[in-house]
């Protein structure tokens, strides 16, 4: 039997090869689909650089995971391409950086590690109808301006402090109310001042009297006087609100001065939910409790993220988790809206009911830009690990409250 | 203003003016946003120039006036519901009063040179701590103006071209006042104080009064810069407006551009911002490297350009008079 190649046969064969190739190689098809650009506006330099870079890492892990899973399927498997811009830890730079994101052609952006940066950037983005999904921005002013392009996926300071106080009340009641007095130590910036004020008002409602309230600047290096004041106050519990370095030095001073507390319970403490603190200060860190942003560690995607972060040699912090989650939210909006148009993205985000993120939240529901189904969790340092102790449905360990005597 | 300017200085000024005009027609909005930021810093740089450049009173704490102006305006608007226009004026007055207060206190006790520089830094720090401690200033939470764009509220965020134009007018106004000071009798007194205070006093100049008035004028300009920042970004906190960064930005622009000249602060500030932005664009995958480059250029400029870019330009094609460096 002989085969002759004529023009019709060649065309048929070429068509069959092309069709087979297309069906067998979705990756090639995806490569031909234009990438969808999503902005990441974080402080990569300046005093918030650590948090900003952690957020960028989280966003990259999320984009990689989404692209590996087939990209945005409703848009032909289009991959997500991140456009990362440095906010330099300065509000005016964050606002000006929005122009860069718009000209890069992003459909939405995430950011910006601090409320002051996000306030400026979201306002600048409003005139472009460009959505900003906040990674971390706890100030309530963010969602009180009526800007339709603002979406805060994570909880704000009022919800976090309310949940923190509620959980403290539950912990104390379950233990027979051993905590009756509290000392508050806070940094004197926007973050610490606002939170400590809310906590100070809430504690008496739990039957806990505030016997000492101490503010300190950031940076602050000598915590001996503060430790002695806490000791003299004979407070049962210490509620600190400050940044990692000060938190570390404070706990060291408390240990050196042998301040025997029934608990250290921070709100958005940053250190008790920072594995770097646990790793480097294992003894001091034991049984410290924090109420903070955190993922649901039992989910498969969370486990995969933890493995990726470990493989990259990074610290697993809430910045990574939150940034990962907000990219998931953006990807879901793209999937449902099937459009990278800026206005369409705002509409898709406003209608979001996403429940597949790594966070321990219910389905997303934005009311005036604030996700009403977000919530913080309580964490406790136990051994080398940071365990979730509240709420019970996400808990990986039973709480230890009050902590064993340190004397 | 351009009396005794050399060809080099005329060319340098022309480049800056062309750039500022080009921002209107550049296809990229990035440059307009970045230039708006630079112009706010240019106003505080012009403020520093009145005392540091003309009078030789180098302050390390101009954020004290900048922050006072911003906070005065913000407190009036947020806590007392005062309209933005009188609050704007009050911010300028508050900056002037703070400048006069710091000057009066410092010069009464004969502080000069590095002692004066350090006491201004201390004032800025004390004000930063106070602003983060008292409820009226937001107690560390900062103060945010209600977003309400319009002429009545002095908020023009939605119209960048109008914002940019108004900022250019403000900068031109401050530069015109700077030029007027420079060529006035008061300006001559200031230069006399800078060159030899004892000799100036011996000639009958009330050096204390001259220095305090200079601080008040400088404070008014600084307060203006702070109020402009507030009206642009609608949010301030103690670190943003009383932080060391703004004090440093206030002095490096004039030093690089040419202290004691009218155009130097604007040229230096714009030049440094352009350098930083250019480096950031070129090195966008390596955040922070732009600051390294920025610092290297700054060190080189300080080492080899004692009179700044205006001094360098003055040596190119000088005419009118020798040196021609007082544009």
From TrEMBL, chain A:
It comes from Paracoccus jeotgali. It comes from the Bacteria. Residues 36-379 form the Leucine-binding protein domain. InterPro entries: BCAA_transport, Leu-bd, Peripla_BP_I, TAT_signal. Keywords: Amino-acid transport, Signal, Transport. This is ABC transporter substrate-binding protein. Belongs to the leucine-binding protein family. CDD domains: PBP1_ABC_ligand_binding-like (cd06340). PANTHER family: ABC TRANSPORTER SUBSTRATE-BINDING PROTEIN, LEUCINE-SPECIFIC-BINDING PROTEIN. GO terms for biological process: amino acid transport.
UniProtKB/TrEMBL annotation, chain B:
GO terms for cellular component: plasma membrane. It is found in: Cell membrane. InterPro entries: ABC_transp_permease (IPR001851), LivM-like (IPR043428). Keywords: Cell membrane, Membrane, Transmembrane, Transmembrane helix. Coiled coil: none annotated. The keyword Transmembrane helix applies. One of its GO terms (molecular function) is branched-chain amino acid transmembrane transporter activity. This is Branched-chain amino acid ABC transporter permease. The keyword Endoplasmic reticulum does not apply. The chain crosses the membrane at residues 7-25, 31-51, 63-82, 88-107, 161-181, 212-236, 242-275, 287-305.
């Amino acid at each position: 039997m002989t085969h002759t190649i004529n023009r019709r046969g060649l065309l048929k064969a070429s068509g069959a090869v092309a069709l087979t190739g297309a069906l067998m190689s979705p990756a090639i098809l995806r490569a031909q689909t234009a990438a969808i650009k999503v902005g990441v506006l974080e402080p990569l330099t300046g005093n918030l650089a650590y948090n900003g870079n952690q957020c960028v890492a989280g966003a990259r892990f999320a984009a990689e995971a989404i692209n590996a899973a087939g990209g945005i399927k409703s848009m032909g498997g289009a991959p997500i391409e991140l456009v990362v811009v440095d906010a330099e830890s300065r509000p005016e730079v964050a606002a000006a950086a929005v122009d860069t994101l718009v000209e890069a052609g992003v459909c939405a952006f995430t950011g910006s590690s601090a409320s002051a940066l996000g306030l400026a950037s979201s306002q600048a983005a409003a005139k472009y109808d460009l959505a900003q999904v906040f990674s971390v921005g706890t100030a309530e002013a963010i969602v009180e301006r009526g800007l339709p392009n603002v979406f805060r996926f994570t909880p704000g300071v009022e919800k976090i402090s309310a949940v923190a106080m509620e959980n403290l009340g539950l912990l104390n009641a379950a233990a027979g109310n051993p905590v009756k007095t509290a000392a508050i130590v806070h940094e004197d910036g926007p973050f610490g001042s606002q939170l400590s004020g809310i906590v100070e008002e809430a504690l008496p409602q739990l039957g806990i009297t505030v016997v000492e309230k101490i503010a300190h600047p950031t940076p602050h290096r000598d915590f001996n006087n503060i430790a002695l004041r806490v000791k003299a106050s004979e407070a049962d519990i210490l509620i600190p609100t400050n940044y990692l370095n000060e938190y570390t030095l404070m706990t060291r001073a408390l240990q050196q001065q042998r301040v025997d507390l029934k608990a250290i319970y921070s709100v958005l403490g940053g250190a008790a939910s920072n594995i770097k603190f646990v790793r480097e200060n294992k003894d001091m860190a034991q049984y410290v409790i924090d109420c903070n942003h955190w993922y649901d560690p039992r989910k498969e995607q969370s486990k995969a993220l933890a493995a990726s972060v470990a493989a990259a040699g990074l610290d697993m912090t809430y910045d990574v988790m939150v940034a990962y989650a907000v990219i998931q939210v953006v990807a879901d909006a793209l999937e449902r809206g099937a459009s990278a148009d800026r206005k369409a993205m705002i509409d898709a985000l406003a209608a979001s009911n996403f429940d597949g993120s790594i966070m321990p939240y219910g389905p997303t529901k934005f009311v005036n830009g604030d996700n009403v189904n977000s919530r913080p969790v309580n964490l406790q340092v136990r051994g080398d690990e940071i365990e979730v102790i509240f709420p019970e449905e996400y808990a990986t360990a039973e709480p230890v409250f009050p902590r064993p005597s340190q004397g | 203003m351009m009396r005794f300017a050399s060809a080099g200085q005329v060319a340098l000024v022309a480049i800056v003016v062309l750039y500022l005009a080009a921002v209107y027609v550049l296809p990229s909005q990035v440059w307009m946003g970045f230039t708006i930021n630079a112009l706010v810093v240019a106003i505080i740089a012009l403020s520093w120039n009145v005392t540091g450049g003309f009078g030789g009173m180098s302050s390390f704490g101009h954020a004290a006036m900048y922050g006072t102006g911003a906070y005065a305006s913000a407190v009036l608007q947020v806590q007392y519901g005062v309209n933005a226009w009188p609050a704007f004026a009050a911010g300028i007055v508050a900056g002037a009063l703070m400048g006069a207060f710091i000057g009066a206190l410092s010069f009464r006790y004969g502080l000069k040179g590095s002692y004066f520089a350090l006491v201004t830094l201390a004032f800025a720090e004390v004000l930063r701590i106070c602003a983060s401690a008292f409820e009226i200033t937001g107690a560390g939470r900062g103060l945010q103006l209600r977003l309400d764009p319009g002429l009545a509220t002095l908020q023009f965020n939605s119209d960048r071209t109008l914002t940019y134009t108004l900022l250019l007018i403000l900068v031109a106004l401050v530069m015109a006042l700077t030029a007027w000071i420079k060529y006035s009798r008061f300006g001559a007194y200031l230069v006399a104080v800078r060159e030899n205070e004892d000799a100036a006093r011996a000639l009958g100049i009330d050096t204390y009064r001259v220095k305090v008035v200079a601080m008040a004028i400088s404070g008014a300009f600084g307060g203006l810069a702070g109020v402009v920042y507030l009206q642009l970004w609608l949010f301030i906190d103690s670190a943003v407006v009383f932080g060391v960064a703004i004090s440093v930005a206030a002095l490096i622009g004039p030093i690089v551009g040419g202290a004691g000249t009218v155009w130097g602060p604007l040229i230096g500030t714009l030049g440094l911002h352009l350098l930083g932005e250019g480096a950031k664009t070129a090195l966008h995958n390596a955040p922070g490297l732009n600051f390294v480059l920025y610092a290297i250029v700054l060190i080189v400029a300080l080492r080899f350009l004692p009179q700044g870019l205006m001094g360098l330009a003055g040596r190119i094609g000088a005419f009118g008079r020798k040196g021609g460096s007082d544009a």
